[in-house]
């Protein structure tokens, strides 16, 4: 080797050594990172002090009662709205002494083993759960008494089950003189005077078109309203529980699970006159092709009954009134070329027994309130502007005022922040009850004269205030959250970030999460947590130590984790929302990609050549869709419990956004039909007992991926329902990102044997 060759060799060795050292110093996804991620969850719990989130109004004492975690432990507080005093609700030492006697153990007054703590309206006692029983603690005698054993929680009804319209039931008239019931599929009444004679009111019921047992008497007992039902055929899906705990052999389960395009029950409202025993025929022409009819509700003066009609496809929604002669009238008609968001934005309030109606609509492009007279004539728009009403808190008929939650009024703030306002029925006199830059939650007294206001941001802990309910004036600061202990764990505040969306005009809002050992000189792959369901918006707005998806824990492995709300999600303008219409594959991705690119311009440590994404349910559909429709940007995806084809998923959610009847848009948005497009690295996670999203949806994706000869990974979890994957799935997801975004082999799982893994 000559001198020149030796020089080049040494130079090459030098740069190789530098590169190796640099790589090692930048190493991420190592055992210590996994251990830090696992331990973070436990370390950050119970480290937010002075941030209560539940308040009880004691009407007889004119006081608020709440509990709050402080540096000492859990404290119980009373706030008097008259003298503005804030004091301990009771002597916790005495309660601890009483419970210590009962438990025969020494208890700390500020670490009492009790839950579900509340007070009655007179504040005379404490009520709580202890040792699987309900107890009371008398604040005068300082004695505890066991009231009853806590009942085992009932198994909730499956969400897909329909009401049993043919249930055996008798409905007594308000005056007590009559019983109404169904017999041989028809409506009968019988007097409660000891006579045996019964009267058949209807004669057109049959097994295939029967009367519902849920009948509605008029308050004067002279009229009866009922629905004749043309039933639909159930749609059963089947689940195999492969590994039941109670037996060796698998168990076949089934669920009634209506899917887009399936038949629905059709209701025909009917009126009966009791004195004449006559049936009044109603004109049904304006309520055909029903998605649903609401229950039949009588006016208090018995002049009419009302119901709400949702046409199949959710593009027409009406409030209908039927008077005592059987005349049917549409009081309010809501029509849209896309969808009426009945499941999230519908609001109706009947003023003075229907003399006026308050109604929510997006007809001017934003969700606002409107006032109608009792005949269905629009009187005036109540709220107006380029902002949205989120919900109505209270309608005061006497003062003709409305308290409501609104977002976007304060133009210098995050447009998703909830603020509280009061306005007159005629749209005048808007009062801003809250304005501070944060997401507010109010807890009003019974007469709405006072409220406790808690507000925070994801980058600013909570402030708790007592305010005047009429003006919003701050009467007293009650709590100011302290997060010093949380910050000492190394946990880092998320950053609120906004950037322009696909149109270059609309602000897209989200957050950026960094690891506790963040080093701006390193390069970090980016992982997006996605949920883009049109029914809501999803980026947290109030202060939390972590959010769904365990995003802070994931960041600890060496990633920048982000979340944002793109177009197609809710709580902005109607145009912003309508992007989802027959287009769920869009997922807001053009906005998300623009947002992430803009963040990377500001922070060059965000490596957008290595972008991953994960989500669950609708987020599972979107995360796989990222690789199918945007593989130039997203390289790695983990999809759990995905509704990959909207024809396979639940009817109510999918028809609302994708429309009815089933058209080409369903196939265009289908991950099954587009599976052949797959590029990048994919992990699918599925629970075998998922009864929220049909597991066959994921299996059909797998079928098409196999046919297209695509490489992917799959985890089926026995016994699991609708889930991100549980502890095991969480570990697999983290390993998948470490391997394919960081480019290193994850550590062996043996390191986990000596630690307790907190559930995500």
The helix content is: 10-25%
| Biggest beta-sheet profile | 8 strands, mixed
Shape descriptor: globular
> How far is the N terminus from the C terminus?
59 Å
* CATH superfamily membership of the domain at 486-754: Alpha/Beta hydrolase fold, catalytic domain
Which fold name corresponds to the CATH topology of the domain at 486-754?
Answer: Rossmann fold
DSSP strand content: 25-35%
Number of strands: 44
- What is the spatial order of strands in the main beta sheet? 37-38-40-39-41-42-43-44
Question: According to CATH, what is the class of the domain at 486-754?
Answer: Alpha Beta
- Helix/strand-derived category reads alpha+beta
Number of helices: 12
Low-confidence blocks of residues: 8-25, 755-760
Radius of gyration: 30 Å
Overall average pLDDT: 94
CATH architecture of the domain at 486-754: 3-Layer(aba) Sandwich
Can you describe what's shown?
The chain has 760 residues and is of the alpha+beta class. Among the domains are: 55-149, no CATH class; 163-289, no CATH class; 486-754, Alpha/Beta hydrolase fold, catalytic domain (Rossmann fold), CATH 3.40.50. 17% of the residues lie in helices and 33% in strands. It is built from 12 helices and 44 strands. The strands form 10 sheets. It has an 8-stranded mixed sheet with strand order 37-38-40-39-41-42-43-44, with helices on both faces. Strands 13, 14, 15, 18 and 19 form a 5-stranded antiparallel sheet that branches.
Can you summarize this structure?
The strands form 10 sheets. Strands 37-38-40-39-41-42-43-44 form an 8-stranded mixed sheet, sandwiched between helices.
